[in-house]
Request: fold
Amino acid sequence: MSQKDNSEKVDKGLRLLVKTSFVVFVGIFISKLFAYVYRIIIARYYGPEIYGLFSLAVMIVSWIVAISLFGLTNGLLRFIPLYRGKKQFNKIKHLIKFSAITLLFLSIFSAAMLFLFSEFISINLFHDSDLIIFLKIFSFLIPFVIFSSLYLEILRAFEEISWYSFIFNILQNVSRIIFLLLFILLGIQTNGIIFSYFLSFFAMFLVSYFVCKYKFSKFFEKSNLNKKAKSEINKKFVSYSWPIMFSSVLGSIFFWLDSFLIGYFLGATEVGIYNAAVPIVLLLGFAPEIFMQLFFPLITKEFSKKNLSTINELSKQVGKWIFLINLPLFFIMLIFPGVIIKILFGESYLLAENSLRILSIGYFISRSLVISNQLILITGKSRLFLVNIILSLGINFLLNILLIPKYGISGAAMSTTIVLVASAIVFVWQAKHYTSIIPLKRKMIRIFFVSIIPLLLLFSIKKIVPINYVSFFLLGFFFILSYLILIFMTGCLDKNDFMILKSLRKRVSEKNNYEKNKDHPPSGY
Reply:
């Protein structure tokens, strides 16, 4: 491919990413806002113990769902774009049908197992009988969660990001909080949490199913492949998917391992306190989510055409954007952890202040290097990905056992941060080895040093001004504004950034002109 063709492909890919990212941004913003409101209502209205029980129940269901999916939805996310790039539509039809039948049996079996063993799990593992009702009702939720995941990943694989974002980010979270508030008004106590969570997933399942059937009805038809062709496709598909299944399971276990071991060593109340820090630090996943929902299908399609140079440029640029967005957010978490927790969850959760500060370091580094994970997966190295997750989980488990009894919830945060940083470095090295791509730009170093200036100013003002809600928001606004001004003034942006900014400005200008013409139509209209 010529340099000109490559440049055009990169520009087109970046424009597509930014175009869909705006839609995703709105969806994720609403999602995060309502997800935090939902958790805050539970944490404040019901207290740390009930919030801890809810967190434990969600953790257990997440693990079971990750196992039951068997990595098939992740497999679809890779194979549908691959077969689309090669115009092999019959293979897509077969994979969708194969996945649906397999997941039907797995979901029913998993739901039955959780229902039957809910009492054993609650009493023998977590020593709390109040957890039983959460697990029993959540067991009926499992098939709906699994098939929601199936239909949502089909939408994503076909690059229907607007629908994906609306259903997954907006519908799910908005309906959840509406149901919760309704149950509270009706005087339904703990069961209100359980049923609101259940009904939101049921709504997501129904809408995702009907959208898929409407938009891709031809892909739900029977394929014309012979038995031998189907067998070969199944073999490749399952060979790629099962390591992803274990990776998803172990990734989910990794995410919830801290809560599990805190619950085991300390109790449900401490789980609730720690889970005030976790959703806050997950805001550092906001920027990657904006781009990743389209990024993986996009680079997978380019990989099928062997356009590595295009993938290289897209990876570096998206990696830079993630770093640019996350850096000020990371600094604010590092400096004001107590204020953030107090605003969102209340004084009862201030014991998580140090945990938030520690976790923010690990998540910032991990999310800044997340592109490397995607690069390994597009090469089909799902087993290598699995090995990485197993090692990370094993080390995190050992560190948690050593650190939680000694340092409490801060020990759990230290363990996770150590493993997140180490595994991120390993992923970068492996991505370089298999794709010759390091998704980092030199200008990221300049961005970091430029950000030190507003950071020092923030430290200086913090020593003089008393910190309350008003001063926190004013200082945060001042810091982000000065950060953005310095980014523009010091040459941290490159031609791709300006191309996107110019494109966005053009779209805004066109929209404004359209609105003016709509309000004031030309004479004779």
Notes: The chain has one domain: 3-441. Residues 3-441 form one domain. The chain has 20 helices and no strands. The chain has a mean pLDDT of 82.
